[in-house]
Amino acid sequence: MNSIEKWHTCFDGISIQCEEKWARIKCDKALKDYLIKPGNGSKQLAGYILKYYETSEGKQLKIGLHSLAIEILAHTYTDLFCNAMKSLKAVLPSSLYKELDKVLENLLTHTEIIDCGEKDVDSNRFIWDGLEPFHLLIYGFLNNLA
Prior knowledge:
By secondary structure, the protein is of the alpha+beta class. Helix content is 52%, strand content 14%.
């Protein structure tokens, strides 16, 4: 990805960037603010991204709607998971907590940009595609956060 490429922000201020076989989303306040608003959801955002990719790249992005939506949710809410895990500080020995904290901080740094790629370029696509059949359960579990 060329670092000087502009981010497209016409969907509720959410930063989106497209290139051959990839769509990228900044996992920031704009994304989280959008998802928490009643009536909004990752499915609507994923639909917009797929249409935007088709417009900007002249072809369809080969990622399923729900696969993309679930990937967005998993990356967006990693911080909730990490913060919940950090509450273990009170019950873990200091040395063990330091190791856990390193892993959690590393995880958080890898979710700042959500890299959504097609199967042949994204080694994690199988995770999101594998969860796609469970999309209704995932959306239901996350309720108004989805």
